[in-house]
């Protein structure tokens, strides 16, 4: 057999191509695509990142998978306050299939779906059906989220309101700020503009002078504690039959305490936007995007 038959290209060309092929095979990211990343893989990374902050993961936490197969290969990550149907649709449009939701998606704290399944609830069936049809996975990040340092919700809230510049006492939801004097109505207006919301409400005398204010939790005990520290409290959702009525009685007794209420979603959703850079540092292979779940309320002026 002739040399030309054995070597359609010259020996020099063969050696050069062989060398280049070897370089391509050994170069990171060129020999083969990065290993597929599953939703479970991402959660394990989040747990590890939390552990690095000294956060011990609780197996009894509500931070668990709610919809979909944890071993689904992820195409993109969404951070949101609540995985509503609209958020799911936006995720699909963005080509993302793993949603990290701060709040429950099945209408109770534990995301217990037994009653919904038993009555074949049409909303539940439609929501889970949409998720399954679009290969979506939803995981909740609530309990351990609030233990991050700095705590995302209060950090964003205080920054947006400029409260972090004011003298204060306490930490987190028990922090009381010295505020430049405003009326209770003006304080409510500030929240409506900064978050922004058309459903901000307040309980108390609109003209009451406020010079010390606190963010309060969702509970009546949080409201009571706030009134020990401040002239007014601000909350992203409380129960009307206890916290609101307690505040009303306090005012009717002449104690002059104010309570400003903003929608739960408005008060906490920016915390899920705040953690996007942190999540992006954990999941470097995929885009991490915040989706605003939007305020649910519409209001009527009378």
Automatic annotation (TrEMBL):
SUPFAM superfamilies: NIF3 (NGG1p interacting factor 3)-like. Keywords: Metal-binding, Signal. GO terms for molecular function: metal ion binding. It comes from the Bacteria. InterPro entries: DUF34/NIF3, DUF34/NIF3_sf, TAT_signal. One of its GO terms (cellular component) is cytoplasm. Belongs to the GTP cyclohydrolase I type 2/NIF3 family. This is NGG1p interacting factor NIF3. It comes from Alteromonas lipolytica.
């Amino acid at each position: 057999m002739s040399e030309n038959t054995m070597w359609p290209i010259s020996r020099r060309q063969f050696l050069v191509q062989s060398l280049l092929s070897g370089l391509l095979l050994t170069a990171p990211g060129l020999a083969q695509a990065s290993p597929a990343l599953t939703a479970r893989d991402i959660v394990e990374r989040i747990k590890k990142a939390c552990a690095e902050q000294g956060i011990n993961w609780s197996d009894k936490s509500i931070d668990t998978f709610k919809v979909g197969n944890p071993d689904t290969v992820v195409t993109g990550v969404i951070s949101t306050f609540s995985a509503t149907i609209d958020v799911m649709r936006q995720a699909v449009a963005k080509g993302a299939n793993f949603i990290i939701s701060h709040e429950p998606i099945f209408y109770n704290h534990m995301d217990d779906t037994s009653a919904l399944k038993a009555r074949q609830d049409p909303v539940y069936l439609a929501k889970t059906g949409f998720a399954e049809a679009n290969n979506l996975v939803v995981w909740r990040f609530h309990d351990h989220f609030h233990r991050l340092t700095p705590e995302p919700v209060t950090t964003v809230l205080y920054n947006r309101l400029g409260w972090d510049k004011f003298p204060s006492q306490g930490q987190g939801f028990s922090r009381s700020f010295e505020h430049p004097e405003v009326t209770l109505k003006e304080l409510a207006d500030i929240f409506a503009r900064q978050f922004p919301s058309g459903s901000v409400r307040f309980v108390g005398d609109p003209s009451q002078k406020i010079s010390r204010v606190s963010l309060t939790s969702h509970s009546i005990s949080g409201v009571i504690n706030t009134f020990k520290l401040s002239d007014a409290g601000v909350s992203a959702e409380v129960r009307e039959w206890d916290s609101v009525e307690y505040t009303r009685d306090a005012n009717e007794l002449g104690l002059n305490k104010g309570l400003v209420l903003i929608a739960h979603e408005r008060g906490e959703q920016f915390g899920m936007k705040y953690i996007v850079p942190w999540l992006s540092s954990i999941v470097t292979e995929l885009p991490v995007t915040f989706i605003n779940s939007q305020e649910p309320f519409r209001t009527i002026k009378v």
